[in-house]
Design goal:
Blueprint: H1 3-6, H2 8-26, H3 33-58, H4 66-83, H5 88-113, H6 117-136, H7 149-152, H8 161-188, H9 196-218, H10 225-242, H11 245-255, H12 257-262, H13 267-290, H14 302-315, H15 327-347, H16 351-378
Helix pairs in contact: 2-15, 3-10, 3-13, 3-14, 3-15, 4-5, 4-6, 4-13, 4-14, 5-6, 5-13, 8-9, 10-11, 10-15, 11-13, 14-15, 14-16, 15-16
Length: 382
């Protein structure tokens, strides 16, 4: 089958299987329940950031400031909680709000000035990085309660087997009912719809994945709370991006700003809102990344966060050329990225090789995306 026809996502799945087989061959503990549970927790922080990047890529833009926003959000949280004595939940909400405000500001500057988004967000990367260093001062980090709600995000598990398997069954049933309802609605409106056989096939695949994952994770401590929150975010944002009018406006703008404007879309409002979503998800991702150590993210990690999140989004199928991608792209991509990171750490390989492997994976994903785009254009498809 032709590369473009097979599609980036199918190649990514094959790549993930290859990564798992390779690392399992070198170390028999790589696919153990404990290791897979750790991967599912460690991927959430960067995965949340990647979810926001999917929206920006769908717009046909890029946000280079996500890593710096994530780090700054953890500092805002720690300052409010530790120094000002504000409860953790309220501090976390205010930290997320700060991410939303930063995203909205960058989106506004991009929209009103006409300066390319990569320039605005590159300035943001440097500016928010500097502000983070200034707020941290000489200490370099701020520690918070290691038993509080934020620290519990990555240390809590759904250990009750009945609840875990019940959640898997409920999720599968919800997918089936939602897909069938969409099928009937489209058919009633004489619109193209997914066939019942395809719906049943997808439901079966989801059921196998959900129950298999639950079985493996239950063998350790149960599905992690962080993973469940991440999957919820994937589903909710996927509904927003692919099922709501807002998402259609984002994709329309990614296909062409002038055509979207002529169609009556408020281009400025959509652009600003997308960068606001990116800021929100960056802040949330930062809190998850800070959770395991109960301390603020080191500012030096900002470039790594950006590259990992961007690689995850593109590797999972989001297009660098705009107007294509889903939040499931971020889930699939970050699973590959984190599997590589965990495998490299498990084998004791130098961190330098990890960056080289990630760079190769990102380049491969970009080449597949470009090839797929050329094939679609040759076939007259968008």
């Amino acid at each position: 089958m032709h590369l473009g026809e097979l599609g980036g996502r199918a190649w990514t799945i094959l790549g993930l299987l290859a990564v798992w087989v390779a690392f399992q061959a070198f170390n028999g503990h790589f696919l153990s329940p404990r290791s897979l549970s750790a991967i599912s927790v460690e991927m959430v922080g960067t995965g949340m950031i990647a979810l926001g990047i999917v929206f920006v890529l769908a717009l046909g833009e890029i946000d280079l400031s996500v890593g710096s926003i994530a780090g700054l959000a953890t500092v805002v949280f720690a300052l409010l909680n530790v120094h000002a004595g504000i409860p953790e939940v309220i501090s976390a909400l205010l930290a997320v709000l700060s991410g939303a405000m930063i995203g909205a500001l960058q989106g506004l500057l991009h929209t009103k000035s006409g300066v390319p988004a990569y320039v605005i967000t590159l300035a943001g990367l440097l500016g928010w990085y500097g502000l983070t260093l200034y707020l941290l001062g000489a200490n370099g980090t701020i520690n918070f309660n290691d038993t509080g709600p934020i620290a519990s995000l990555t240390s809590s598990h759904l250990s009750n087997p009945a609840a875990a398997y019940g959640l898997a069954a409920t999720s599968t049933a919800a997918f089936l009912l939602t897909s069938y309802a969409n099928h009937r609605r489209h058919k009633a409106a004489s619109m193209p719809s997914t066939s019942l056989s395809t719906i049943l096939l997808h439901t079966g695949m989801l059921a196998v994945a959900a129950f298999a994952a639950t079985y493996v994770l239950q063998a350790f401590q149960g599905p992690p709370l962080a993973l469940l929150i991440f999957l919820t975010a994937v589903v909710v944002l996927d509904y927003l991006l692919r099922r709501m009018p807002y998402g259609r406006k984002v994709f329309a703008l990614g296909s062409g700003a002038e055509a979207a404007r002529r169609a009556g879309i408020n281009v400025a409002a959509v652009r600003i809102s997308v960068f606001m979503i990116s800021g929100i998800m960056s802040a949330i991702g930062g809190l998850f990344l800070a959770s395991p150590t109960a301390s603020t993210i080191q500012p030096s990690s900002s470039p790594t966060l950006l590259l990992s999140a961007l690689a995850a989004a593109v590797l999972g199928g989001a297009s660098l050329f705009g107007a294509r991608g889903t939040t499931w792209s971020a889930l699939l991509g970050i699973l590959v990225i984190q599997s590589i990171a965990s495998g490299v750490a498990l084998l004791g390989i130098q961190a330098a090789l990890h960056f080289m492997i990630t760079a190769g994976v990102l380049l491969a994903a970009a080449l597949i995306d470009s090839t797929s785009r050329r094939v679609r254009r040759a076939q007259g498809r968008p």
